[in-house]
Amino acid sequence: MSEQAQANIGVVGLAVMGSNLARNLASREGNTVAVYNRTYARTEELLREHPEAEFIGSRDIDGFVASLAKPRTAIIMVQAGKGTDAVIDQLVERFEPGDIIVDGGNANFHDTIRREKAISPTGIHFVGAGTTPSGAATAPRSRPTAPATDEGARYAWTTSTPPSPRLSPARG
Q: For 111-130, what is each residue's pLDDT tens digit?
């Protein structure tokens, strides 16, 4: 798929949790999902295994950011710690005020608070949201890992997470 197409939400990190979340999001009516993994072979594998999802795959972080409609929303599903910090730094360099970064990993709440404080002055919204696997049809589900401490983070949480249909579990 073209990296210039406009996805309404993106997922960075395509191991089991990230790829399942991307598939879950793509199954929701109205969603177009951009996907990126630092190892492009993993992105290619997801695109090949799930053509029905119509993912927008990117070879690099710049292509991923370009594929997202503004205001951009990216969910990070990489290993907690330095990997998450590295992806956040890459996104903050490229995102604009009003864009949203959601850390969907299993971060320590102290890290979530630190990240929110560091990102908030940029005008980029940040939400720390852990994920809980709960079966292929509904997994992963999101939950806040730390309270939103500023108005921008509260806005980002309500815009990009349940009860929004973009992340709510399948019904039926």
A: 888 899 999 999 999 988 87
Report the predicted TM-score, pTM, of the whole model to 2 decimal places: 0.78
Q: What is the DSSP string of 46-111?
A: HHHH-GGG--EEESSHHHHHHTBPSSPEEEE-S-TTHHHHHHHHHHHHH--TT-EEEE-S---HHH
State how far the Cα of 149 lies from the Cα of 134, in Å rounded to an integer: 28
What six digits make up the tokens of 103?
Answer: 């850390």
Residue with tokens 């709960």: 134
pLDDT, one tens digit per residue, over 21-71 is: 999 999 998 899 999 999 999 999 999 999 999 999 999 999 999 999 999
Residue owning tokens 């009860």: 163
**Three-state SS letters, 99-164:** CEEEECCCCCHHHHHHHHHHHHHHCCEEEEEEEECCCCCCCCEEEECCCCCCHHHHHHHHHHCCCC
Q: Give the Cα separation of 7 and 53 in Å (integer).
A: 12
